[in-house]
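Q: I'm building a small set of examples for a reading group on sequence design. Run inverse folding on the following structure and report the sequence directly after it, with nothing in between.
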């Protein structure tokens, strides 16, 4: 989970109301992301805003807009003055989460998962394995078999020495996936 922390920041923002519950440095209230991630410790000195102040505090203190040497800081000052002018004392701040169709007030883990995961095409045999009334144990074994990662004796012999690879059922051939399911005389009778 900690490895996804940076990606997770992209899925959460604050919609500015009165600014009372929005951290000036650590919350995402600008489209650029948290100011702390952009400017770091040096930003506190450059902007002249203390570390644990809220957006409301910055707006209420009517701080003087500074002129900076870097364009980034000047752009942030410009955006800040626009947002501070739009602060409404009667409106609460709202947490919003990214979904399929933009940011919403409700969080849906399914939508977030679909946006985070790498989607791949569905296998043609997937419906034959994962159907509504499947038995999980059997479906899992079939899935392992379809991906050819079932622990048959010929595969076990690759990582463990001294394993007898003859089929346990018929004792006639090497135990492989195709032998177990199609060629073994004993399993074909069952």
């Amino acid at each position: 989970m900690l490895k996804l922390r940076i990606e997770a920041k992209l899925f959460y923002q604050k919609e500015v109301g009165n600014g009372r519950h929005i951290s000036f440095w650590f919350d995402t209230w600008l489209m650029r992301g948290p100011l702390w991630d952009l400017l770091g410790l040096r930003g506190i000195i450059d902007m002249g805003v203390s570390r644990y102040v809220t957006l409301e505090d910055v707006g209420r203190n009517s701080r003087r807009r500074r002129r900076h040497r870097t364009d980034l800081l000047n752009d942030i000052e410009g955006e800040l003055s626009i947002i501070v002018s739009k602060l409404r004392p009667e409106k609460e701040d709202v947490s919003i989460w990214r979904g399929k169709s933009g940011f919403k007030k409700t969080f849906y883990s399914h939508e977030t998962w679909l946006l985070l995961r790498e989607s791949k095409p569905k296998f043609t045999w997937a419906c034959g394995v994962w159907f509504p009334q499947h038995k999980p144990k059997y479906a899992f074994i079939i899935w392992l078999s379809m991906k050819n990662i079932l622990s048959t004796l010929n595969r076990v012999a690759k990582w463990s020495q001294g394993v007898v690879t003859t089929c346990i059922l018929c004792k006639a051939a090497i135990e492989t996936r195709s032998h177990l399911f199609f060629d073994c005389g004993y399993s074909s009778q069952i």
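Residues 2-116 form one domain.
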